[in-house]
User: Fold these one by one.
Assistant:
Number 1:
Amino acid sequence: MTSVAPSVGVPLPSPLGRQRTGRFGRALSDYLPALVAFVAIVAIWEFAASRLQTRPYVMPPPSAIINALVENWSGGRWPLFASAQHTFIEALGGLVIGTVIGLVVAFAVSRWASARDAVLPVAVAANAIPIIAIAPIINNWFGVLEPLSKMMMAALLVFFPVMINVTRGLTQVEPAALELMRSYAASEGEILRKVRIPNALPFFLTALKVGATLSLIGAIVGEYFGGSSEVVGRIVVQSASALRFDVTWAAILLGAAAGIVFYLAIVVIERVLIPWHPSVRGEERQ
Amino acid sequence: MTSRQNDVVVRASGVDKSFMRDGQVVTTALSGIDLEIRRGEFISLIGPSGCGKSTLLRVIGDLTAPSAGSISVNGKPARQARRDRDYGIVFQAPVLFDWRTVEDNVRLPLELLGQSRAQRDGRADEMLALVELTDFAGHHPYQLSGGMQQRVAIARALALEPSLLLMDEPFGALDEMTRERMNSELLRIWQKTGTTVIFVTHSIPEAVFLSTRVVVMSARPGRVTDVIETDLPQPRSDQTREEPRYFERITQVREALRAGEPSRSSEMPP
Amino acid sequence: MHRSPRPATDDAPAHGRARRILTFVAFFLALLVLWEGAKLLGGDPWRYFGMVWRPPLHFSFASDLNLPHVWDVLGAMLRPVQRGTDQSLGAYLVGASAYTWREAAIGFVAGAMLGISLAAAFVHSRLLERAFVPYVIASQTVPIVALAPMVVFAFGQDVTSVVIIATYLTFFPVTIAMIVGLRSPDPRALELMRSYAASSWSVFWKVRMPASLPYLFTALKISATASIVGAIIGEGPGGIPDGLGRAIINFNQQYVSGPEKLWAAVVASAVLGIVFFVLIRFAEAFTLKGRPDAVIA
């Protein structure tokens, strides 16, 4: 999801509502539809699952899932909390490793135009590889039982969007801005600090949002190809084969919750770091 | 200072500029430009699209190197002048940085010069007062109108007290009313700072109203075909726009432009 | 909008293409050199033509088990896939790739259509957008790999399940990009259509859709890979015996006796991903012929 540039960041409910209704009214008109949709979906699901379903166990009603979540929270055959914790740490570790390496390579590559021209298409092509196929090999390299092997899988998935997006952000600077800096006889270092890095921030944060979900996918794919059993990926596979779909859904819910936590954390960082960017201002096309 | 009043700020001699592709010349943007600009002058470069007026501005500002000939600014090569931060530049687009407030945008060149925070703040305040945007110091560029953004760009360009202000169609994107107001504003600033201005424009009335001299250029290859003194009294005001002499000069520039035009049929698509 | 002509350093097409291909070849060779270089420095002893080279260092990742020689992987492609069959590993992987690609392609088309329809609905209704876009985004935080066993259980162990998983991974990038793309036309173009009293149907097909194409293709290039990922992931729980996903799982189990096979399957997946990507790239170049490529990265 790399080349969908910052403008395609995230259409969270736009904070630019009708001007007259005031702050509260605006928040209401932004989030109310989503809230109503949520309640409606859960209600319909609950109803359909408990009344209509011919195979009631595939999609258990939300109440049963919540039940499973509570019952298996801290131990037993499906230790949900511990598993979510392990998977979360694997994903977070992978996100950090992948981001750091992605940043380092992006800065190195964007320093030289010729290096960038050479590396960027290759990175884009490499990103077209279904990297998850490498998961078993990564497991073999870093030890199938080690959390590190899952982290490296996640890191590999995170690396490409970060590297590609940040390279673009550092290099796709308005030519007039560079001319302006040139007219001030600014050094490359000054241009980097005052123009390129701020320009790359929105690109970076977009990549992080993509990377946040990718890191979880990477961790779970790694788990899927073997390793500790107290992780979300294994719980899902094992509970599904034991036909305990309420537990499966509870585990999926936890995985999704981890993803949402990552995502929201990045949205918060974004509000702090780039309050000026159109995607954060929620501005419509003018 | 008075002895420097008639100093030459810019001297261009025999400047050529051609653009190459695969080792072949694809466009001759400038050919044999000779030009002398004295301190305190307000020079407009006017001509049809593709006559190289923007290129000439860029060559003078050392944003691009000439293919032949030489440019000296304040008696130095253009490159040295740029290193000495003798230039202020205003483009057609304001080129303000979204991530900086109005004030911080104006401070940018001062930061690059390594001035202390106190110096910077004082100077930035002064510049914003000059363009009458003091109340908007803490705003972000996207909160301002196009005309206001361009005034911020002018404030930023003047922050370093440049001896030469280069303006590349700065008001081209503004509506006529705003443009006239900005013209008066610019003249006020020019008078107050006494800086030398080179101003690229498409608009004949704008060139005549603003300038002490209008340099008329023609296209393919870009060269100077005429230089017209606009001897309208200073300071100029809205009255100036109604004086007969103003219209005479406009006519004179228009005829000069027409004389430089080779023939209709040779016009090429952009 | 007068602009001085740009210095003509921007890529001249013919030149650029040759250079690009050369770069790819150079990178590929560099990768091979790195691969074998690591083995030369820190792998297992090399025994060829009766001579032995003992690498001075020891990297655990460069052992013959963890990183087989390039030629061993290539050699494995030519040998039978398992004892008692004539079919070579290479031929088997080509067949598996084609099979997986078929699943992925069906999911890709379905996902693209779903994505476009959703985006069209969201663009025309603020309310729908507010109500559902957050969940479209949230849907991506649900790790599809975790969902795969459930999908298979619900839809049965056959290709349908795999296609559904591929669809699920495809629709998201398309939806998000198309919301932006369908909103991208110049407002004046929309006003022009309004002045013709054009129906929103014709506004959609004559203005919004053409304007969104560059965005669509940007998303499709991402989705091409995603659909293959979905197909590979889905084949495991889906119990599909003919595709790459199953090959990877099987060869992973046989890793100790023949690591080359897993590596060969990984190479096949990589090639498949790149081929699909390049196909979409060609379709993009064909469709957007003559447009300035401002939006295309």
Number 2:
Amino acid sequence: MSIAAVAHTGSGPEPGQEPPAATLGRRSALPYLLLLPGMAWLLVFFAVPIVTLLGTSTQTPVPGGDIGAFEQTFHFGNYADAVGEYTEQFVRSFVYAGLATLFALLISYPLAYLIAFRAGRWRNILLVLVVAPFFTSFILRTIAWRQILSEQGYVVSSLKFLHVIPQDMNVTASAVAVVAGITYNFLPFMTLPLYASLERIDPRLIEAGGDLYGSSFAVLRKVTFPLSMPGVVAGTLLTFIPAAGDYVNAALLGTPRTQMIGNVVESRFFRIVDYPTAAVLSFVLMAAILVLVTLYIRRAGTEELV
Amino acid sequence: MSTRGAVLDDAPAGVTPVGRGGGGGPLRWLRKHALQIYGVLAFVYIFTPIAYVTVFSFNEPARTNLTWRGFTLENWQNPCAAPDVCSALGNSLRIGVAATVISTIFGTMIAFALQRHRFSGRGATNTFIFLPMATPEVVLAASLLTLFLNMRVPLGFTTIIIAHVMFCISFVVVAVKARIASLDPALEQAAADLYANELETFRRVTLPLVAPGILGAALLAFSLSFDDFIITNFVSGNVTTFPKFVYVSAQRGIPANAYVIGAAMFFLSMAVVLGAELVRRRRVRG
């Protein structure tokens, strides 16, 4: 459901649009008063913690101190140590998130296309059905997949019976299961923005492509897909970002060998009580995502985000 | 060659272009309906785990709920039979309501400021509002927990609500802003023409028009809060919410009652959303 809101803005006027002239021109304290409580909340509980995190990342254990006691020593070596030790998990996070984003795009595009151009009056109902998974608990539906794909489950045994997958293959507790779980769980984050931008395409443009003797594939490649780029960019970002930081799918569907960076942060916090390393890893994850997102947006050539 | 019918068959039935794609037959039918068939398959995929949860909510109770033992209504008649399921649910509801009320009020205020006023720092505020949504949950979680530990804030209900309000505000702002942006300015101008002052216009015209957007944002905030696991897990201390309960008990077996709660939640939300859609349709038609 969360993305419904985000995707929806796509079809409304752009966020950069100026407020209506009627309310402009007066400089008053009102806007600042309206902003105050919410922005203060975000400042104290979002911005300050990020700075605190940055501070924690260069701390080292107090010599001879208790477990969990750290002091600020500006030890930037923490970064090299942590990143060096967990390179594998970092790479895995980005590879899994990238694959899941790609699969989500491949699954969602035809679906969003169907809803935007063929659903007629069923559009809204189908959109509700797309977000339906969000109406059950995220954890519960992930566990459901674990049971469905389990060795004893009907799906795996029939696939084995049909020799679609090797007899000795284990679907749960594998990278395949983790990527499949992420793909499923974040699918609506992809479908809704895709729908929002496909829905805005004037069908006459697609018709024109056909009238000019473009094959349906050529029309898709040269007309529909380029016009839906804002949706593709928004969808891939909305899927990739939470996917890269996710640890629930890896914890429930994977094995220790499929751990992602989120799992490491979690265990550094709770099992090992090593806050500086957890802080370094979180910070590097955030920085890496920011860099990737910036590069991606620049390449995709669209500024339309929120 | 000329599969363009596939792209264009928005045209009413019977206007199918003549002379394209030879003959009838099942292959032609398949090609013509490929997208529809795909849609059905996609929805089967989307609903598979939901169906699983629903079916297994009727499973005969035992310590775990992994294999099918037989149909029973027992879990549904007595959803609180398994200890802790309902107390976790109660915690989630309480946290959800508190987080929703606070984040909806604050978020709506920000949305009005951003959409209806020009002030210095407006662009920066827009960007800043976007940042929490672009930050992975585990980073938000780790940073908040670090702050709470440094400040020696005891973890519990308060810290969970603080965290939930924090990540809900941005979503509320985006949802309400979209609604304000879609308003027809003529309506407010009409109110002004009829000698309503600014406050009256806001109270009797603007606010009622934006209300559905605010309601939608509140539902969104509630569902985000209710379903959150990652951040809650970090800042909750000993308090158990429903998602946390399910996650923790996944190791030793989830009682069928948790599936009942999951399925009931699903059908309740579907009923609300589909009901609203039906009402909207009737109104549009009538």
Number 3:
Amino acid sequence: MTLRNKLGKAVVGLLMGCYALLCFFPFFWMILTSLKERVDVINPAVWTFKPILDNYIDVFTKRNLPLNLLNSVIVVSTTVAASVLLGTMAAYGFARFEFKKKESLAFWILSLRMLPPMAVVISFFILGRMLRVLDKQLYLSVIYMSFNIPFAIWMMRGYIEDIPKELEESAWLDGCSRMRGLFSVVIPLVSPGLIATAIFCVIQSWNEFTLAFFLTSFRAKTVPTIVTEFLSVTGVLWGEMSAVGVVAILPILIFAFLIQKQLIRGMTFGAMKE
Amino acid sequence: MGWAAAGLRGLAAARPHPGDDVKRRNEHLIFIAPALVALALVVIFPTIFLYYVSLTNYSLTSGWEAKRFIGLENYFFLLFKDPLFWKSLWLTLLFVLTTVSTELVLGMLIALGLGRLKLSRRLILAIIIIPMVCTPSIIGLMWKLILNTEYGVANYLLGLAGLGKVNWLGVQSAFTSVVLVDLWQWTPFMVLMLHAALTSLPLEPFEAARMDGANAFQTFFGITLPMISRLVLIALILRLIDSIKVFDIIYSLTLGGPGTATELLSLRIYRIGFQHSNMVGRASAYAVIMILAISPFFTRLSGLLNRNAK
Amino acid sequence: MKRKIFSLTMVLLIAAGTQFAAGPAAGDPWVDMIKKTYGGMTITIAATGHTSTDSMRAMVKDFTDATGIKVQWDIMEEGYLRQKLLMEHQSKTGVYDVLMIDAFNLAEYSPSGVALPLKPFLDNKTLTPAWFDYQDLSAAFRNGVGAYNGTIYSVPIAGETRFLGYRKDLFDKYGKKAPKTLDEMLALAKFFNGKEPGLYGIAMRAQRGIQFASGWMTLMYSLGGEFLDQKTWKPTCNTPGTISSLKYYIELLKNAPPDVGVYTHEEAISAFMAGKTAMWLDATAIAPWILDPKKSTVYDKVAFAPPPAGPAGDFGVMAGWGIGISSDVDVKHQNAAWAFITWMTGKANARQYVLGGGTPMRQSLGTDQAILKVHPYLPVMLESLVAADNLVKTGRIWIPPNVKAIKVLEIGGEYGARAFAGELTPEEAMRQAQIECERVMAEK
């Protein structure tokens, strides 16, 4: 390895390190804020301080964080499971078949993601009221499918298109139906892509705020909605808010870290194995 | 509602014609129908509601009964009488184009850089997921704290480095700051997508190119880019759609201010429909215009995608 | 050392206060009646984050123990609270029993009937405990915060006015005195702006929209301006008085930190508590934070003064929060809600309420030494209330009592902020604001 190469690698490493630091810093600052007294929050020069756990204690005992976490988990797991399942099946339909106006339909599905939440929340509220499903996790779960399914369809379609048809055809020769072929042959091959899609859906659903806020009041409140509890009339309760922020991220970070290997392998679209 | 009609026509066209292999023709329906039905059920009411309400003067404070049908009056108002509409539209387009293109370029550079690393790659990948995963409303407020000119840590660090204070959220820089925060949050998305694509590329073409004496530029633009172009387009499309709806971050940082420096369309919708105006009818008209305005971009892009796929 | 004394005092005070902490106990006829009729119920309250809310939450255990009524809380940011209440009422969901109502929104809620008029409850001798003493609540707050057009909709839990907080140490160092007029205040702001490294003149709210309007309105009336003529309900955005008050406010804001254009009450208080500004003109409800060493770096360097007077008079702010009853719930829930309200705001529990973080609302507490130790600014606050009363004497209420007032304020705040950002001249901004306000007021 030439000196030039070594130098090049060092520079690249340094730049990547800087970028990672930039990504990490606000999160790091949030952790610090959650451990500080408020007087230290407004004084950035303070780097050594006595950390206090009061914020975390308050957030778990005085607020409903455990319930909110549970609600978030319920909503997210159900909506992602359903969306990925339905989305993958539909993606298969788009990938393997030709029919008239296929692309128009695909476009319409994608356009559903363009609806700004602010614009549709009132209609969902009225609908929810009529059907008496307000403040229920299931309602949120179903509504979230409106942006998760289109995403799943568009992502999975690409993965499935990359799997050569021959593999399926040999399964059909063995007497397998098309549907079984999908589940026994295709899906195992695209499982990394499936996981990638699932992760993105999880992130989007976990962090969704507008719809969750207006469509729940007590029982089904998810984690993002409780942020506004800390925007008090006197001022922002930085300590508690950051504590919630940290707690809200941890499940996702752990989840993502555990399956990141699949994630990376899985986002393979490319012009593959030529 | 052209696209809805197109979709329905597509389904209709798939219905069996006499004499055809009926089962064959409809097979795709079995796979697509469940998702389609779920989607249709969920969005049909809000979509109809949105378009209908945009033709009324429904206001949350006056109530449902008090609303009147006013036809296209909201639209006329927005297009001709609301001076801020065009500014909002312009700011939104500027924002979307700037962030998405920068994220693409930065994402590519970083993804290429990541490819050169061996040991630290996994660690760095794990770290750069963080911006995407943070709850937007919370991290937006954290950024506001960080970017505060007087007691924020950004200016503090700049001060340590000997540079001056920056007025991050002042009139001049607010828009840039908002763009920067969005870049922080979403560049990782591009990095991950592009990195995965790059690592899946076969080695042969690159070795051949090297033997032919091609330099880095030629290799990149001649081989790498064309091979991952489909992925790049998909990532672009997904990112564009989400970028237009940007709301949480701007709401936390500036609420559309100072003045109207960061009043993008989604904030205008919020301001009209929710903040003390509560003119839901007019806000709905805004949303409709927003959707219609950006549709051409997507038709173009997905057209590119389809051509590319063949 | 000071810190130690402070915390010791707090402990002693709270210990002293706790002899009142239990509140009315079993044996009190009202408590028994409530427990028998409504015990076992659960009521819900929609509230916003506020020290008063914290105090109520600390008191709720005693309430539940005594009456058997359980309470569920939904706490959210004030803007969202308003939205939620309107939406819930639209569909008559009846999700909330007790509502925390911002005086700002009272005019909006009453025609649409979000909250019930409370007079029937106040007059009801059985439902209202003997120790409630409604009249003891400061009249200014009773009428300014809890009533609209003569109808009482809420019982005030956090009345506030605005006053001046200033850095006594800096003022003493440069031989300055607290300003008595707005001109003096502007001069002081200019004086201190940049006087020391990292120091600015003043911190105030200026984020576009209602925040800007709120900050501006602190001084608007004293400068001869107003958004609405409260007799004819014609918008008066572009009168000379309003325009000159806007110019004053813009001039004042030039002596604030450079990103004041995104300042809400949060940034204003944080900037002052971080020692970045010499003055702060904002709500009395936030004053306790300034004196708290856990929150403020200047807790021992601050003094308070009533809001300075202007050329048009000495008019102060009247704002705050109250708790009322939702109109979408059945009678049983209404009565249980009323039991909650009287418990939290009644005279018997007032001391506990204030010591727990609630805002002092009652005349009887005005000379209470224990309270004064915790809220040393109370005399200044009472003095400031005189200015608030001055406005009422001219036949006007700080927040114009009109259902569309809040929209007008929002418009005024939006255009004012744009003028401050330099997008429009004050005259042009107000001209456009006037047009929009006229349209809003004319709509059915």
Number 4:
Amino acid sequence: MSTDRARVCRALSLLAALLGAAPAGGQGMPGGIPHTTTMDMDRQIRVFALADLLEYVPNGTGAIRADGLAWIGGDFNRLYFRLDGEQPVRRSDGQTAVDVTYGRLVTPFWTALIGGRVELRGLGSSRRNTRGLLAVGFEGMSPYFFEVEPTLYVSRTGQVSGRFATSVDLLFTQRLILQPRVETNFAVQAVPEIGVGAGVNDVELGARMRYEIRREVAPYLGLVWSRQTGATAGLARAVGESVGRAGLVAGVRMWR
Amino acid sequence: MTQVDDRLMHDSTRDPATAGAERVSRRGFLQTASAAFLLTGLDRLTPSYVRRIAQSVKVPLGGAPLAPSVSSVDLAIRDTMVDIGGRRASATTINGTIPGPLLRFREGGEAIIRVANGLREDTSLHWHGLIVPNAMDGVPGITFPGIPAGETFTYRFPLGQYGTYWYHSHSGLQEQTGVYGPIIIDPVEPEPFQYEREFVVVLSDWSFENPYTVLDKVKKKADYYQYQKRTVGDFFRDVDQYGWRAAIRDREAWAKMRMSPVDLSDITGATYTYLVNGQPPEANWTALFNPGERVRLRFINSGAGSSFDVRIPGLEMTVVQVSGQHVQPVTTDEFRIGIAETYDVIVQPSGDRAFTIFAESSDRSGYARGTLAPRAGMTAAVPRRRPRPLLSMMDMGMLMGPGGMEMGGTGMAGMDMSGKTGSGSGMAGMDMSTKDMAVAPPSRTAAGSLSAPPGALPVPTAHGPSTHGRANASTPMETRSRLNEPGSGLGEDGWRVLVYTDLRAFKPRPDALHPPVREIELHLTGNMERFMWSIDGKKFSEAPEPIHLTRGERIRLTMVNDTMMPHPMHLHGMWMELENGTMGDIPRVHTILVKPAERVSALVTPNHVGPWAFHCHVLLHMEMGMFRVVQVSEPSVAVRSQP
């Protein structure tokens, strides 16, 4: 138990060092007076985790949908984790993508991200398919307070795809907040074996109204409309899948 | 009572735990014996001014009796359970109370203060506004290593000044959890004003949350405590009132910049309880007076994150001291006290009625309250809080037309910045408009220049090409002096509000007209999204070069606030002579509340060698990096040999 903890501590301090954070004990001030804890606070390492979407989608047999973000790091350099997935409740063909990227604050409002993405399809089924991708993108806030995350992905065989998501908060009261959200995926080259056609693959529009019981915990109800488009929709129709859905979702937004 | 236990502090031979309550000077004893006998139990260990009902001794004409020339005090800092408005809370205290004991000294004397650290972490005490030898200034990591857990450090320094000051921990976030207290240094020369009674009024903010949790929350969500944002409903109300075009243009102007017009404070009444001498509003700290007496109130803002707007409805206040320094008396109805500032006012309540001391937080999310009353238990109406103000295009630093203000937005957010709300000088009886003409800002130039005479206001100046990098989210197009403005949310109520241009040193200071030999310009910068605060875009941990000064040289320190928040900037170890257009009457201050998009200049002549701290006194802004070292060195031989 204690050795585990020591290992975790060592790993964290190594990570901290990599991220350019305050080493324990601090460093000396010019003039030889030892630095105390006081002046090291502006480069502390923090850990943030947000489940932006964590919701039940009642369409079809019902599914759990999640979109989350986590980071560990300081003000300028962070390690980002992003998870985007959906798992049907009664079928075993969910899909999940995890991005692990290094993020560096490059302008006051924008973080540049570079790293990798793992896509898992048909989770728990015989059609299980996994692929790894290079991920390059940005995360930040555009003028007019839109949270934006455009990301480009390149597969090992050079296929290029991308994801773009944006949302904005509209305050009805200080705690009752409407979040319109747009997400789209696209691909430059078709990857038929995973049901991806060239062009825009899908578009999702959502409007979720949350109530912040505390800032960190906000249950919500939302309306979501999504549709596969173009060649991707064609591939889905070919295997008898539906290409669109619309309906109510219910979930909770949480962070710490 | 106030004076009694304070003088008691000077005897050092006893246990510090009981200092401040049991020791009664022979002179004070007779006057207060009856009051003291009513106090029992724990109350006896409490400095009188932090008790709920405070009754000061009558002050003899010509001022308070002087403390001994060498004053010795024992202070113990430790974790303490305290009671804030009936709720138990874990605090760090000095001698067991929040605020700590009032330290009363005598100008020209010497202070010996033994500080015992009973915490499990380092601590320190800094004497805010006192010019002391560098090693006694109490900034860990800069002037001394700090006081380790379990150890005692003895501060010893001469008292070369008079006035109202305060002291606080400079370690971690201890200031937020209670390590602060007031200081009075009685002047050797008679004061140029009279009063019969005096009280210390320490304003502060308390959170039941651990301050490190508060910090963590704002680092992850900077507007965590902001519950006064504009809503969809506000938008439609503005549409009704100003029309679609104006409402949209106003929202657009802020949204384009990704700035919020309600960012007046980071930490708000959502977590803060605002205190008067350690008492929350419900407890109603009460100061007793006899009708007709002149009462001196020594206001000190010991908050960690709050500016207060102070008024006493029904009474006008005559400001006689600012930053511990005598000023020409100015009569006003309200003043804004930035963090770490002190304002001494004299009021003359009459009649058998009570008066509310009302200190609204500048973002209007809460208030501190006390009462002035002829008898204990009397109260006066507590005013309603005013609606939270909005920052204006002026705060954004939009270019202003030569004829005044061209609102980039609609004007609904705009504050009138004319001098009409300023307080007239009580002595000269001049009204503000006349005074304004005397200090009319000079015309705009490309850049501030050394040719500006000492004491003159800085001229409006376009922002330079540097935007200070990723740590700074906004740069105003133009910055200008705003010393004649009362600040966001003030000046629209039909009563007088003190402004910095009202302040004149009590005695003309011809030496102040000595021109500076060079000018240092520092930009106050920040990135609210990540709750990063910095100077010239660099956090302190990024190890920026110290600001180098030479002992005895006269420099002009120009501070430019690139952010949308006011920053109370404090310079240790030397006075800042605030260039507020009063030329030879330039007032000396230790802290300046710099408004958004403001350009402020101060003349500085350092007399003590060493590394001195210079920082924003919003505790979290300082800890997040809005901090620099000002290194004062002996003049080199070459400089010294010059005529």
